[in-house]
């Protein structure tokens, strides 16, 4: 499955403008043969927007989800995007995956919140593994800081995730995560990892771009630079199966020894 990584911060504070950016990118992604496009963390509203997070937060099945579903079905590709999710009085940092026919497939709430900014505005989610079948692959979702905890990614590996999508808002000076950690996570867990970042300055944060899709051999299939880009890479189930056969990490685990880790 060809996967498009939309590296963009959109227009922080404007859901309407961000839906336009998503629509335009979806058209380009579909024309390039993509079956899935992944947008960054909090793409729908912007990340560093303070109290507007709560004001702009929507239910998982809200008006913006309907708008994204219309974009997905019109262009014929699945779309994953980050947004602030409202559930009653609670707001989560969430990511939703919508199919090419406009069906809501999966919704994930970020479980590990980064820094005072996120802890002030969000409640952490409690479901560590969210997966769905898409175009012959088992697709899982994490958000940004979540992927930096090896336990999270290993849980996905043990649950059979083939492609882990990670909308992110990774900032300076943590570029080593995109450059080094993501390929290692893909290799040690025998999966593809699509890590899709914001770019540029937002409030106090400088987002670094460097979106990447890494394969189970630890090699990046595509890498974006520091500006707004739409980049592509293919995920190959046959290569994934061969890599899992050749790499014994998961088979050689000794779980009985790991009790002290929890």
Description:
The chain has 262 residues and is an alpha/beta fold. Helices cover 29% and strands 28% of the residues. The protein contains 7 helices and 14 strands. The strands form 3 sheets. Strands 5-4-3-2-1-14 form a 6-stranded mixed beta sheet. A 6-stranded mixed beta sheet has the order 6-7-8-9-12-13, covered by helices on one side. A two-stranded antiparallel sheet has the order 10-11. A hairpin with a 2-residue loop joins β3 and β4. α1 packs parallel to α3. The longest helix has 17 residues. The model has no long low-confidence stretch (mean pLDDT 97).
Q: Which stretches of 5+ consecutive residues score pLDDT under 50?
A: none
What is the SS-derived class?
Answer: alpha/beta
Distance from N terminus to C terminus (CA atoms, Å) equals 36 Å
Number of helices: 7
Strand content: 25-35%
> What is the topology, as strand order, of the major beta sheet?
5-4-3-2-1-14
Question: Can you give the helix content as a percent range?
Answer: 25-40%
Compressed to H and E, one letter per element, the order equals EHEHHEEEHEEHEHEEEEEEH
Morphology call: globular
Characterize the biggest β-sheet.
Answer: 6 strands, mixed
